[in-house]
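User: My collaborator sent over this chain with a note saying "see what the structure looks like." That's all I know about it. Can you take a look?
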Amino acid sequence: MHVVKPGESIQRALDESGPGAEILLEEGVYAETVWIRHDDVTLRGAGMGRTVLVPGGDVLPDIPKLHDADASVLSGISANGVARLKVSGLTVRGFTGAGVYAHTVTGVSVREVEAADNAVWGVYLRESSGCEVVACRAYGTQYGGIALSFCPDAGGEVTGNEVLRNAFGIFVDNSSRTRVLRNSCHENAIGIMLLNQVYEGEPEGGVSDCLVAGNELFGNNLAAGIQPDGLGAAGPPISGVGLALIGTHRVSVVDNRIHGNHPSGESVMGAAFTVGSSKDWGGDDALDNHILWNRISGNSPLDYQLGCDLDRQTIWGNRADKGEPVDAKGWNP
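Assistant: Without extra context I'll predict from the sequence alone. Here is the result:
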C-alpha cells in the first residue's frame, strides 16, 4: 500500500506503483488531475468531504479527453482501457469534465464517492463492463449525475446513491443488464432515464434486461434542454419527470415511489412516469417491460403516460391517481 499525503502527487504514486497499485489518500485537499493507466488499481480516500480532489497542478499531455469534448475539458479521475479499477471514499469537485470518467474499462467500481459540481458529468462510465456505482452522491452537472453510456453488458449495479441538481439524475444510455436499486433522485429535470437511441458514429444501441426497483424519485422540477448552453443542452426539453423508459426491452420496474414531480418548463414527456418509443431516432418501441407495484402520486400534469403497445407489457398492482390511457389495466387509485 502506498500512502499519499496532501501536497504529495497522487499521479506519481500511481505511476511508481504500477499494476496492482493500492493507493491510500489521507484526509486533505489534493489539487491535480489523475489518470489511471494500469490494471488492478485501488484508489481509496478517507471519506467523502475528507479527501477532496480539485483542479490544479500539471496535467499529463496525453491524458484521455472526455468523449465528445475538446482537450481543454478535464476530468478529475480518468481511466481508459484498463481492468479492475476501484475508486472509493473521496470527493471530486469542480472539474470542467466529469468527476470520474471510465472508458472501455473492464470491471470498474465507484463507491462512496461524491461528485460535486463537475461541469459535464458526475460519474460517467462509457463502453465499459462490470460497472458498479454504489453509495455515491452526485450533483450539479450539465448532463448526468451518474451515467452508464454504451455499456451493452454493464453487468453491474447502481445502488444506494443520491443524485440531485442534474439534467439526468441516473442515465442508463444504451446500456443493458444492470440493476438500478434504492437510489434517491431529486431536484433534477428527470430522476432516472433509460434510453435506447442510436447516434450517428456511436456504437450499437439498446437497453434491455435491467431492473429498476425501490427508488425514491421526487421533486424533479428542473428544466433541461431549454438554453443552448444550459442544463441538458444536447437533448430535447425535459422537466418534471421521475422515471422514463424510452425504447427499452425487458426492463422490470418494481416498487418505486414517484411523487411530487412538476415541470418548470417545456417537456417532451407529459408525465412523471413515461414509457415511449424511440423508433423515430433509430431506437425501437418499448417492448416486454414489467411494471409492477409502483406508487405514483401527486405529480403534474399526469402520474403516468404509456405511449406503447400495452399488450406487450406486463402491468400489475400499481397505484396512481391520473394517467394516459385512462383505462390502462394494472393501475389502481
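A starting point for your reply to your collaborator: The helical segments are 10-17.
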